[in-house]
Write a structure and sequence with these properties.
The chain has a single domain, classed as 3-Layer(aba) Sandwich (Oxidized Rhodanese, domain 1), CATH 3.40.250. The chain is built from six helices and five strands, in the order αβαβαβααβαβ. A five-stranded parallel β-sheet has the order 1-5-4-2-3, sandwiched between helices. It starts with a helix and ends in a 12-residue tail after the last strand. InterPro entries: Rhodanese-like_dom (IPR001763), Rhodanese-like_dom_sf (IPR036873). This is Rhodanese domain-containing protein.
């Protein structure tokens, strides 16, 4: 990833993500379903695997809501991308920037092992 791509995307701490989630900020976990079933989600997070992200953002709002169960974010909504170790969440923020999203941050799921999780 280039330095320029990182300049406007911030890596958040566990506490920051949990606070943002309480405010209704979208937290999108880009891990695969099997990972989610094994470890759970950050409280308030939803799952859209990285390989499905661009397709999901190209859906109509109605199709998106039917498939994912929540309103499709707009390009101006605040989004926090999450994955196991940070690699996919950083890649997801770059993909979302290319799609026109402007208020993006990322986080690492491993930091949540000591925090309460929403388990399946």
């Amino acid at each position: 990833m280039s330095k320029a791509a990182d300049e406007t995307v911030v890596n958040l701490t566990t506490e920051e993500v949990l606070e943002e989630g309480k405010k209704g900020v979208h937290i999108i976990d880009v891990r695969e379903q099997v990972e989610i079933h094994n470890t759970g989600l950050i409280p308030g997070a939803v799952n859209i695997p990285l390989g499905h992200l661009e397709e999901a953002m190209g859906m109509s709002p109605a199709d998106f809501k039917e498939r994912y169960g929540f309103e499709k974010p707009s390009a101006y909504d605040r989004l926090i991308m999450s994955c196991q170790s940070g690699n996919r969440s950083r890649r997801a923020t770059i993909a979302m920037k290319k799609l026109g999203f402007t208020d993006l941050s990322w986080t690492v799921f491993l930091a949540y092992r000591i925090a309460p999780l929403a388990m399946f």
